[in-house]
Amino acid sequence: MTSSHLRPTPAADNQPTDFSSSPLLAKYPRHNMQDGAAIKVGVLGATGTVGQRFITLLANHPWFVLHALGASPRSAGKRYPVAVNWKQTSRLPAVAREMIVRECKPELFADCAVVFSGLDADVAGEIEAAFRAADLAVFSNAKNYRRDPLVPLIVPYVNPSHFSILRQQQLAHSPPLKKGFIITNANCSTTGCVIPLSALEKAFGPLESLLVTTMQAISGGGYPGVPSLDIMDNIVPFISGEEEKMEWEMLKILGGIVKNDDGARAFDMHARTPLRVSASCNRVPVIDGHTACISVRFSRRPPPSPQQVREALVGFTCDAQTLGCPSAPRHAISVHEEPDRPQPRLDRYYQDGAGVSVGRIRQCQVLDIKFVVLANNVSIGAATSSIINAELAVLKGVVGN
Ligand SMILES: NC(=O)C1=CN([C@@H]2O[C@H](COP(=O)(O)OP(=O)(O)OC[C@H]3O[C@@H](n4cnc5c(N)ncnc54)[C@H](OP(=O)(O)O)[C@@H]3O)[C@@H](O)[C@H]2O)C=CC1
Ligand SMILES: N[C@@H](CC(=O)OP(=O)(O)O)C(=O)O
């Protein structure tokens, strides 16, 4: 059997993105940007698992140029190759080889129009707030501000409409901000799931309930993560805080934004059509790539058939593609027909880790439909989402030189 989309041979792990083959770049070349100049970006937490992926993805970016790298005081002052324990299979990009790691202080990133954060959550709260207060645009992977009622939690293929809350965030700040804000992306397991779920809601109306069981890669916990003696030959059926994050974040992302009587915007948390979510999260001995088994029930009766679901997922397109984000993949969702796919080892680098892979779409005897989804936790689950969010921000005129 064949797959619904032609997929390239899986690239060697983590090769730098080749933007020259992006179909969108031809349509939206660099000179289409506001003033034609590359946009300076910084990376906080640049030495970590997510930070390294940022550097790999940004090294050849057509709009963004790496300008400043930050990490802990342990790393600050060192050349990046000395500070980092480089764990990517591609070589450390030339652009980062001579850079000196800075402390994560806003004044050291003042020239950056965009700051990506891959900071440890223990320190992200305070540091990201200080960067926002210095009127810098922060795109964060950390969990700290995801529940903030004025901070959008954006999965770029799903809810870029949530950018509309940003002005309110800036005005609520004391003093009000002109350019600074925080945008977060979601927990890596949440991200992989909401992409196909949003495609289903778009095609068939609201979901009523869903059950999700994850099998999450070791790299999700950062480096060095779970001790080898705990994870080899084993499954750990607990990831602290993960189930609660998935259950809550899905509602914020899949929900809309309402305008109150006073004109203020608020996230509706899917309240108009309540959605019940139950998540069970497991750590498995896979290096990269979070897999999730999902069963859903639709509000609308009768529910769609597996074939209708398959067609909706294959046909899914999103703003990040149509607007022309250079890092958006040709297909946000790849649908497999083979009975034993997706698999992390085979499918996690599909489209450089920017797409998600779905398979085993079938009837569920308890709810309506069940399927499997695989997402690269470090790419679309983290760095790639942040980068596409920043590309959307450029196209929406929210950031720029
Ligand atoms: N790994 C994944 O798949 C995903 C991770 N995330 C989130 O992204 C963030 C980064 O995760 P990950 O890369 O895995 O984590 P790592 O532990 O691999 O990296 C953490 C980074 O934070 C820096 N840091 C630690 N302490 C400080 C400090 N006091 N001041 C400034 N910088 C500091 C570290 O610098 P140094 O090297 O100098 O210590 C390092 O660069 C976390 O919030 C995580 O929850 C989100 C989605 C997926
Ligand atoms: N907790 C996730 C990764 C992560 O860091 O999540 P969050 O950004 O929601 O804290 C995992 O272990 O796979």
From TrEMBL:
EC numbers, comma separated: 1.2.1.11
Pathway as given in its UniProt record: Amino-acid biosynthesis; L-threonine biosynthesis; L-threonine from L-aspartate: step 2/5; Amino-acid biosynthesis; L-methionine biosynthesis via de novo pathway; L-homoserine from L-aspartate: step 2/3
GO annotation (BP), single: lysine biosynthetic process via diaminopimelate
Keywords of this entry: Amino-acid biosynthesis, Methionine biosynthesis, NADP, Oxidoreductase, Threonine biosynthesis
SMART domains according to UniProt: Semialdhyde_dh (SM00859)
Reactions it catalyzes: L-aspartate 4-semialdehyde + phosphate + NADP(+) = 4-phospho-L-aspartate + NADPH + H(+)
Keyword Transferase: no
Domain Semialdehyde dehydrogenase NAD-binding: 40-166
Position of the signal peptide: none
Family: Belongs to the aspartate-semialdehyde dehydrogenase family.
PANTHER family for the chain: ASPARTATE-SEMIALDEHYDE DEHYDROGENASE
UniProt function note: Catalyzes the NADPH-dependent formation of L-aspartate 4-semialdehyde (L-ASA) by the reductive dephosphorylation of 4-phospho-L-aspartate. Mediates the second step in the biosynthesis of amino acids that derive from aspartate (the aspartate family of amino acids), including methioinine and threonine, the latter of which is a precursor to isoleucine.
The protein, known as: Aspartate-semialdehyde dehydrogenase
